[in-house]
Amino acid sequence: MPVVVQEDPFDPGAELSRLVAGRRDMGAMVTFTGLVRDTGAGDLRHMEIEHYPGMTVRAIEGMVAHATERWTLGAAHVVHRYGRMAVGEAIMMVATAAPHRGDAFAAAEFLMDYLKSRAPFWKKEVTDRGEDWVTARAEDEAALGRWS
């Protein structure tokens, strides 16, 4: 299954092993795992992520399909969590496998840029000072321009 949206923690190593199990035609695997980090005053208690289940999976599946059409990939996999997560926990993972590294790297970067800016998730940071919804960053939006 190329897209998994779940509340439970996941093991990036196990996900990667499943992605390429039995494959002998892939020469490159690229992975990225995003973690909850405290970018503020060091008082982040936890992050909460919300989504619309059917809409979210369909949107990410569309991104993966586009990447698979654009680059020569043997496999692509996205895992994204929702719910409450502590600092240091894995939020998401993108993994791509291809015969050659260039396609694997490019597809992984493409998926990361689109997930960051277009995937229908809403993130809230809960700190000692209160709660704040995370807003889009201009640099994340600008990164999409290179894929046009």
Structural topology:
Blueprint: E1 3-6, H1 12-20, E2 28-35, E3 44-51, H2 53-70, E4 75-81, E5 83-85, E6 90-98, H3 101-118, E7 121-127, E8 130-133, H4 138-143
Parallel strand pairs: 1-4
Antiparallel strand pairs: 2-6, 3-5, 3-7, 4-6, 7-8
Helix pairs in contact: 2-3
Question: What this model shows, in words?
Answer:
This protein is α+β, with helices and mostly antiparallel strands and 148 residues long. It is 34% helix and 34% strand. The strands form two sheets. A four-stranded mixed β-sheet has the order 1-4-6-2, with helices on both faces. Helix 2 packs antiparallel against helix 3 (101-118). It is globular, with a radius of gyration of 16 Å. The two termini are 27 Å apart.
Features:
148 residues
Describe the structure concisely for a colleague:
By secondary structure, the chain is an alpha+beta fold.
Helix content: 25-40%
How many β-strands, per DSSP?
8
Spans where pLDDT lies below 50 across 5 or more residues: none
The helix count comes to 4
The shape, in one word, is: globular
Cα Rg: 16 Å
